[in-house]
Amino acid sequence: MRRLTDYLTTRGKSVLAAGIVMVLAGMALGVVDLSRIGVLCIALPVLAALLTRHHDLGITVERTVRPSRVPIDSVSTVDLAIANPGPRRTPLIMAEEHVDYALGDRPRFVVPSMRAGERRVLKYTVRSHTRGRHRIGPLAIRVRDPFGLSLRAAAHTGHTDVLVLPRVVPLTPARAKGSELGAEGTIPHMVALHGEDDVSIREYRDGDDLRRIHWPATARTGEIMVRQEDRPATRRATVLLDSRASRHRGSGTSATFEWSVTAVASVICHLLDLGYAVHLLTPRADVDARIHQNVDEEDALDTLAEVTTTGDEALADVLRAASGVTASGGLVVAVVASMGDDDARALAALRQPGSNGLAFVVRTGRGARSGSEEIDGAAEATAAVLVGAGWSVLVVDAHAPLDEAWRRVSGGERQVVAG
């Protein structure tokens, strides 16, 4: 049971203390009027506290967020329904909605007195510049007397979440010879209509079987061309993300990790539009890397909305999980930061002979939170290992235009190009 003085504000306690002093002074000085004023000053805060404690705050609160999944920088509307299920009128209520800092300022309302059974709906909007799952609620309510002498506070513990999705940049299909990506007419991967393998011609890649060289096409083009025998199956792509906190820097939209998440989200949506079956590999802080198989756009964006940076050990977990997924071939897309030679070779090995490997190596520069400064050229060194294994690689920073970067890396370039 709370004490009566717990409901008094600073003003109420001051008036109460002044009243006690005036009563004592009036008695000591024999001034009756001073004592009467003191009694009044004592009675006012006591009565205010009694009335405030007596108020019924048994209201109900319901929230509806429309939409509850929004792209970054988009607006959601929150309908806050407050009802009085009790038999008596409610007092004037001051309400404040607690929201995550990423959603902006806390909305404040003054709710007029409601009769029994009455329901009011308050509306406000939230917008986030930061992806993730953000909480709306609880609702803090306060009741005070007209003189500001007493205050009663309570909170309705219910809450609702709004999921802010990562930014998705529309990507332009590559139209380079030998690329497995692009619009119709640029994809040599064919699907048989009657169950037999179809044959297409493409450029030679490191690791291709020399017995598959197509000599007539080689003579015609002047470049080594090989036969590609594709089984009647859906094209597959594996997309992986490097989440090591020690290799990323910056905050907000200029953070290298946020650029990486945006790149992964955009690539997945692009590949899904091209008809790929996409496997997404994401790190988790507490367990091994998680494999999201055959994701659709909604699943991928929901997953990437909540992905966070992890420790350095997460990279090894992702590479280990990816090796099992990519063993049967298919396109591999990696968005990574600089790494050691052993990790770079493990990543390079994910590309199977006859398949494409595309990588963005994000340059983080000096000041990475790794306990020591990042060596200049580390991103280029990582890219060189991948290029040597037949990958198409682009070294980028957090300000690189993603659409242009994608056109270059998916256009069949093999050299290291700084974005």
UniProtKB/TrEMBL annotation:
Transmembrane region(s): 12-31
InterPro entries: DUF58
Keywords, ordered alphabetically: Membrane, Transmembrane, Transmembrane helix
Boundaries of every DUF58 domain copy: 201-308
Keyword hit for Lipid metabolism: no
Pfam families with a match to the protein in the record: DUF58 (PF01882)
Name of the protein this chain belongs to: Putative membrane protein
Record organism: Nostocoides japonicum T1-X7
